[in-house]
Amino acid sequence: MFIEAEIRALAANASLEALNRVVLHGITLAQLGEFVQAKRFLRRAARAFGSKDIVARSRCIVAESEIALVSRNLGQPVESLEKAIATFEKHGDWTNAAHARYLKAQCLLLIGHLDEAEWTLADIDSTSLPPVLRVTHELMVAEIAIRRLRARTARTSLAWAMRAAHESGIPALSAVVENASRALDTPAARLIAQGKERLLLLEEVEALLASDTLVVDACQHIVRSEDMRVSLQRRPVLFSLAYALGEAWPGDVNRDALVARAFRARLADDSYRARLRVEVGRLRTALRPLADVCTTRRGFALAPRHESEIVVVLGPLIEEQHASILALLADGEAWPSSALALALGTSQRTVQRALDALATAGKVQSVGRGRARRWMTPAVPGFTTTLLLPRAITRRVG
User: Fold this and answer.
1) Full DSSP string of 281-310
2) Other CB atoms within 10 A of residue 90 CB
């Protein structure tokens, strides 16, 4: 009955009031997990507006795109939002155009397109926007800065976000900013150096990567020193060897230990030792601009090109085979395997196998069946990345 009343109001051209109820009700349904019903409701509302009120119709499309982001259906929102942005700008609706751009930037962030997300934000003049959208803008700038390891930029943006949140008078917004700020005061990675291990904050990671230290970066599978880097992302065996040698520096690693690390073999027979020599030769060639891989009596050791350099390993907080999937699920939303595959740039089947392994270990759980199946983690740690029309939600509560 409620939905039918909304549709009749839309058909009667009660545009603004009815649209506000449409957006609010659709997002409420989405937050309750009724994604299919929410999208169906908003599509019927958009059809009710038709071509008579194209701006109002575009607002319904934006609301549907936001629900798509909440439900992590990441394949279509960008194209729909681009059309809505063009409509808003053509009719001078700059506030809704900015909101649609933020949703587009959020979608791009979720699939890891940082450059495109940054370009999308650059097209927005946030100074003239309402406080709620200014909070959104600064949080997105901060998230991009965190991913790019720019701690000072992130702190500045979060400070501006908190000011805008106080100005909005919405306590929930202040809580979101406070939660985001905590990410800068919690460990971001592990440092392994000369047999010792300690945790690093984001600022410390940034300083380490800007120094002349030779870093075996296990977060991105890169070996780097200052502005020079060698990517081993598509060469897992070589990176396993580099990781083991970086952990042992300035010592060496015996051949049997390297065979176990690189090939996961329990017994290092002659065939594995021959294969190890081949892979060490490939690693030596790959790392030639940065370091040498020296042969020792026991095995092999890593030697930086400059004698003054030290070697460290930068590792993730948790050593986990499927850490990238857990990182995406840490936002607390329920992801379909197709969206995880899109965000990670891999096949859906590969992601599904990883999810099955994580589910067996009790680290993830699923809801729904078939194409409606979604995955989530039991806990909700970390940095909030999705903002769902907090103004509309607050109005509903009031």
Assistant:
1) HHHHHHTTTTEEEEE-SSEEEEEESSTT--
2) 12
Token digits of residue 101: 């751009």
| Secondary structure of 109-162 in HEC code, one letter for each residue | HHCCCHHHHHHHHHCCCHHHCCHHHHHHHHHHHHHHHHHCCCHHHHHHHHHHHH
Q: What is the pLDDT of residues 271-290, one digit of tens each?
A: 888 999 999 999 999 999 99
Query: For residues 12-40, b (16+ Cβ closer than 10 Å) or e, as one string?
Result: eeebeebbebbbbbbbebbeeeebeebbe
Q: Which residues pair with 92 in a beta bridge?
A: none
**Eight-state DSSP code of residue 376:** E
Q: What is the mean pLDDT of residues 101-130?
A: 90
Q: Comparing C-alpha atoms, which of 71, 75, 85 is closest to residue 38?
A: 71
Return the H-helix or E-strand segment holding 362: none
3-class SS of residue 271: helix
Asked if residue 263 lies in contact with residue 272, where contact means CB atoms within 8 angstroms, the answer is: yes
Which pair of structure tokens corresponds to residue 131?
Answer: 């406080």
Could you tell me the pTM of the whole model? Answer: 0.79
Q: For 300-321, write each residue's pLDDT tens digit.
A: 999 998 877 899 999 988 777 7
Q: Quick one: CA dihedral 140, 144, 147, 153, positive or negative?
A: negative
